[in-house]
Amino acid sequence: MPDTDTRGAPSPIPTGLLCRCPRCGKGALFSGFLTLAPRCEVCGLDTRFADTGDGPSFFASFLGGFLTLLVGVYAQIVYSPDWWVYALLLIVGMVATVLMIRPMKGVLVALQYANKAEQGRFEPTRPEP
């Protein structure tokens, strides 16, 4: 990570949820729906350090699935609705899950910056004498 000075950086969770630069909290973090901007237009932070992998989709799918299940079980217990209500709930749950991926990615990038997370490395083992 080229820029490791995180003093004065905004809190990573709200900054990530708002999809803002993890260093200044003002610049846009994304240039597309899930494409990170190469640099922050305000402070110039290079975002090449960020590698969230499959983390955002994992967290979004589990959170979205849990909330959809919770609403579905509640609806079944209280109202016993027709099948089309569950079909509608499933569609709303899928759309909500997709819309959660971007803020989740923002949070993971901000946490990666705040904690100075880097690629894991193995240290070579010394041969036993």
Overall, the morphology is extended
Uncertain stretches of 5 or more adjacent residues: none
Describe the biggest sheet? none
- Give the tally of structural domains: 1
Helical fraction: 40-55%
**C-alpha Rg, in Å?**
20 Å
Mean pLDDT: 92
Helix-and-strand structural type: mainly alpha
The N- to C-terminal Cα distance equals 36 Å
Strand content: under 5%
The total count of helices amounts to 3
SSE sequence, one letter per element: HHH
How would you describe this structure in keywords?
129 residues, mainly alpha, extended
Notes on the structure:
- With 129 residues, this protein is mainly α.
- It has one domain (12-114).
- The protein is 48% helix and 0% strand.
- The protein is built from three helices and no strands.
- Helix 2 packs antiparallel against helix 3.
- The longest helix is centred in the C-terminal third of the chain and has 32 residues, at 83-114.
Topology:
Blueprint: H1 12-17, H2 55-78, H3 83-114
Helix pairs in contact: 2-3
Task: Describe the structure concisely for a colleague.
With about 130 residues, the protein is mainly alpha-helical. About 50% of the residues lie in helices and about 0% in strands.
